[in-house]
Amino acid sequence: xxxxxxxLITDVTGLRVGNASDDVIKSGATVLIGDQPFVAAVSxxxxxxxxxxxxxxxxxxxxxxxxxxxxxxxxxxxxxxxxGVADTLRAQGRGFNVGGQNVPIVPSxxxxxxxxxxxxxxxxxxxxxxxxxxxxxxxxxFDLGSVGAGAGGVTTSLKGGLGSAxxxxxxxxxxxxxVAVNAFGSVAVDCNFWAAPYEMNAEFxxxxxxxxxxxxxxxxxxxxxxxxxxxxxxxxxxxxxxxxATRMATAAHDGMARAIVPxxxxxxxxxIFGVATGTHKITDEMLDPIHIGHAAATCLARAIARGVYExxxxxxxxxxxxKSKFTVS
Length: 329
Fold this sequence. Notes:
The protein is built from five helices and 13 strands. It is of the alpha+beta class. The protein has one domain: L-amino peptidase D-ALA esterase/amidase (4-Layer Sandwich). A hairpin with a 5-residue loop joins strand 8 (161-168) and strand 9. Helix 1 (80-91) crosses helix 2 (127-136).
């Protein structure tokens, strides 16, 4: 397996990502949009999720494809980012047609970043506008770190951020991950990342393997219970069914557990969307889904580390960035 050309989720052909951030409130929103509607699924393993329209993503529901997915900061306020995306898509004529009315399907998930040092004393909810701006900026190339839904993310001891990574399997299938990291647990131990065994091409510093990791490592978080959650999307160009996309998302949680210690706590709303664009045909019905799930987990572990590694210093930060704390001489 090798990273795709961009090492981003947009190596999956037909997908674009847009980000919008507000440095005053220290928050933002991220949109994943496809050239066409795409199969989507979801797997929730955290104890405190915040979501919109995720019930539609069960394999037994009528709607099998969605128009976009939204990741946002802002806790419950951030769910309004999807409203801005849905309004814009409807104006463009996109959506699920019901009796001549187009209804864009835009599931979303949020993380809690209301106590991260930003000014949250807004009069009108800012997230609808952030969703609109994120959609307008959607492209195959996009920034990582303190942008979009990761703009206000923090972990137990470092700033979080927006991360992405990709892989291309030997069979030609592409897998990518996109994640907003805001975890109760630790992403780094000393100056290295828990995801170090999966790093490719020094994409998050090239510090090598963790030496003698403590199997009973217990982070001492500088966070309150409840102000957490890591939300992600894993995507492939394989022609997966919604049930298979659900399994891919479930398998990808292994990557979250490899990169964040601990993960899936009762106070994290850890959630992963699974996306399949269907442009690449599966040739081995038995093995390809297994390889795709493994690759999705590997991509997500790498994307989590990249999001923290690429975080940048902003006024009012309550946590250091990885680069400011572990400057390479």
